[in-house]
Amino acid sequence: MIDLASIRIRPFETGDRDFILSLVPRFIENAIPPGRSSIQVIAGIERPLCQFMDERPPIDALLIAEQEAHPLGFIYLQAKVDGFSLERHGHVADVAVTAAAEGTGLGRLLMAEAEIWAQTKGYRFLTLNAFASNQAVRQWYEGQGYEPEMMRYFKPLN
């Protein structure tokens, strides 16, 4: 049973790599963008995660949520520059929890940690991306106060 009061959120450690990569397939459980293969999407999610885990840039953060030293989820946060205002801000690149932790509030806890991280950096806002076809995750984000800003369109050319 997951008790949010006993959750510890800590920075990534080298031994977390396999756990983090094991959660990447969760991103395509409910939706795959049109014109993309599952292999492409998984590789596209893994690439920046692996780059962070290899290089550990100090401006970004990869945080692990664990209970009694058992990892249950992660959130990957990046420093970005807004294309409109040129203002630095925080970006939630990825957030995932284990199937057992889904629906327990752990994702909300990780998102709250993202806000704390961004505020300590002096950022005024956070951004994130979601697959347009993943209605469940879009509703989840909107329920936490995120608003859609843009929609990216994709057309495969044969």
Sequence-ordered SSE layout with sheet pairings:
Elements (H helix, E strand, L loop, with lengths): L6 E5 L5 H7 L14 H18 L5 E7 L2 E12 L6 E10 L8 H15 L5 E3 L6 H9 L15
Parallel strand pairs: 4-5
Antiparallel strand pairs: 1-2, 2-3, 3-4
Structure explained in plain terms:
With 158 residues, this protein is an alpha+beta fold. The chain has a single domain (4-143), classed as 3-Layer(aba) Sandwich (Aminopeptidase). 31% of the residues lie in helices and 23% in strands. Strands 1-2-3-4-5 form a 5-stranded mixed beta sheet, with helices on both faces.
> What fold name stands as the CATH topology?
Aminopeptidase
What integer value in Å does the Rg equal? 16 Å
Number of helices: 4
Q: Report the sheet with the most strands, covering strand number, pairing sense and barrel closure.
A: 5 strands, mixed
CATH architecture identity: 3-Layer(aba) Sandwich
Number of beta strands: 5
What's the CATH C level? Alpha Beta
Measured as a percent range, the helix fraction is 25-40%
Instruction: List the strand order in the largest sheet.
Output: 1-2-3-4-5
Low-confidence region ranges: none
State the CATH superfamily name. Answer: Gcn5-related N-acetyltransferase (GNAT)
The arrangement of helices and strands along the chain is: EHHEEEHEH
Overall mean pLDDT stands at: 96
- Beta-strand residue percentage: 15-25%
Q: What's the domain count?
A: 1
Tertiary shape = globular
Estimated structural class: alpha+beta
- First CA to last CA: what distance? 49 Å
